[in-house]
Amino acid sequence: MTSYKSPFLQEINARGFINQVTHPHELDEALLNNKPIIGYIGFDATADSLHVGSFVQIMLLHWMQKMGHKPIVILGGGTTKIGDPSDKDEMRKMLDEESIQKNITGISKIFHRLLKVGDGPTDAVILNNDDWLKNIKYLEFLRDYGKHFTINRMISFERVKARLEKELPLTFLEFNYMLIQAYDFLELNQKYNCRLQMGGADQWGNIVSSVDLVRRLGQSEGFGLTTPLITTSSGAKMGKTAQGAVWLNSDKLSAFDFWQFWRNTEDADVGRFLRLFTTLPLEEIARLEKREGAEINESKKMLADETTRLVHGDEAVLEARKTAHDLFESQGSLDHAQLPHIEISLSQITSGFLLIDAFRELGLATSNGEARRLIRGGGARLNDSVLSDENQKLAPSDFEEGLAKLSAGKKRHGVVRRI
């Protein structure tokens, strides 16, 4: 393991953020300079919220600022129009301008919560790369920058190679992504003296090409750093569950469901996730991860509290804790729970409202068929009682103080409110 002198690299290395660095010793020396170094990460606007899969990158920017350096967030209004080649079997769906702008508005929210945005020497800057990419003149771009990229090298990078080896189509549009990302770094280097590009391990090829272009044409030397691909101990991809993505915006996923996601962390992942996704001191994390048996659950609650506090705030933590207590530790009222909910009228109930429809509308099942299978498997509950009849309907007697609780398994719940 590389030994670093700069506080920033020491901290993120100890927390498990570093996968590869292009020029580790030079970067370490640059970070030891008295002036803040400027670094950036780009986020394409493919949805109106980022999910937990991007959380490690956001935390990297958070630590950069915390350790006295200046982060730049690039919202990919321009690069979203192209799409980065991935290991998927088809190219990314093309979005129109209105959809991209809507997504940019949505994903920018998380950065205002985790970063101090402003004009100060270490304040974060949020930029949209469409501001400069839309003005590129194609022939001049090819002449000035295309000559610095060889097809031989581009097809040697893992993501491109994987597509070609599977004989999957790789469009010329996607092939340009590497050039455009490198141009982004050059633009930031020349206008903002940005010297560090960061990203996930899957971005290594793009980042290496970007650093190479900046070192050829930039006003200062460029560096690259990638984080490891984060998976759970069981091998699952971070940020994906059987129920879908774990979104960071509360309008996409409730703060309680976000809290519960971390509360359900596998025992073996608690220490690693505390280091990556919280700002707790490393000494405290070392103590928390040593717990075993029932005590490890308290460490999981600490993980859930700290991640939820960063993303949703202190009040959300208190509400999530109360909801969890009401659900699992007492017979408390669910009036103030953060659970997913739907509202139905008394006339809907008396005319016959199938429970499988309620499970689907609450998001506890993706379809009526899945809801039926859940009931057949004994995993569906109404007010904590196991359901056995796939055609059972809600009855007025199912509601206590106007509420009926539905559960899919032990960890997912929703509320039907009678209005």
UniProtKB/TrEMBL annotation:
Binding residues for L-tyrosine: Y40, Y177, Q181
Top-rank lineage group of the source organism: Bacteria
Subcellular location(s) of the protein: Cytoplasm
EC main group: ligase
Listed EC numbers: 6.1.1.1
Catalytic reactions of this protein: tRNA(Tyr) + L-tyrosine + ATP = L-tyrosyl-tRNA(Tyr) + AMP + diphosphate + H(+)
Pfam hit, one: tRNA-synt_1b
UniProt xrefs under CDD domains: S4, TyrRS_core
An example molecular function term from Gene Ontology annotations: ligase activity
Function of the protein: Catalyzes the attachment of tyrosine to tRNA(Tyr) in a two-step reaction: tyrosine is first activated by ATP to form Tyr-AMP and then transferred to the acceptor end of tRNA(Tyr).
Protein name: Tyrosine--tRNA ligase
Source organism: Candidatus Bealeia paramacronuclearis
